[in-house]
Model the fold of this input.
Amino acid sequence: MKHGPGLTHPPYPSGLVLAGRRVVIVGGGHVAARRLPAFLEAGAAVTVVSPEVDPVVREAVDRGEVSLVPREYESGDLDGAWYAMASTDRPAVNAAVLEEANAARVFCVRADDAPLGTAWTPAVGHVDETTVAVLSNRDPARSARTRDRLIAALRSPQDG
Done:
């Protein structure tokens, strides 16, 4: 069974408890803006490292929900992190973030080249107290379709 480019084993699914734990997002663009609400909902202590940020990120900073380091990534920015996301538009910077994360044993999502990261972001949905997270061999559209079908099934009245 193939599990993604260069991968011989599937990822191990896990629910991370990030409440009060430092999460560092390197890059403040649309990927950061899309992922930020889930980190905040999880109670993570989020730091964004980026000279420029998406309006969604700026609003979270202005509300005091997110710390902003308004500059380019530098080695050491992941100190104390439990989880990292490399989401710049520069592969060399994302590679450097991943290298630092690996050295510090911090799981890291690489938004530009997911199979290279040590963590992947699933398609997530919630129904009542149930969280559904789907990974479909790095096919985000398939993951989203599968998540949507599962959520619909969970919302459907039960037979019998």
